[in-house]
Amino acid sequence: MELGYLYQWFVEFYNGHPFSYAELEAWGRMTGRQLDAGEVEVLRQLALARERSSVMIST
């Protein structure tokens, strides 16, 4: 299964700040993307990993 599209969605959506499920759902509606629960989880995990790496770099 190709997952590169999820990283592209992450790059488009994520602005460096924590986000809610409601914000992600709204983004999906506005872009015409229907995210399933698994895709939402991958995007959430990518955001958490990015936030952890930012903290590690800044300390």
Provide the fold topology.
Blueprint: H1 4-13, H2 21-31, H3 37-58
Helix pairs in contact: 1-3
Stretches where pLDDT is under 50 for at least 5 consecutive residues are none
**Inertia-based shape:** globular
Mean pLDDT metric = 90
Report the C-alpha radius of gyration, rounded.
12 Å
Strand content range: under 5%
Distance between the termini: 37 Å
Q: Note the total helix count.
A: 3
One letter per element, helices H and strands E, the order comes to HHH
Q: Please count the beta strands (DSSP E, at least 2 residues each).
A: 0
Portion of residues within helices: over 70%
Biggest β-sheet strands, sense, barrel: none
Structural class computed from helices and strand pairing = mainly alpha
Instruction: Give the total of domains.
Output: 1
Index terms:
59 residues, mainly alpha, 73% helix, 0% strand
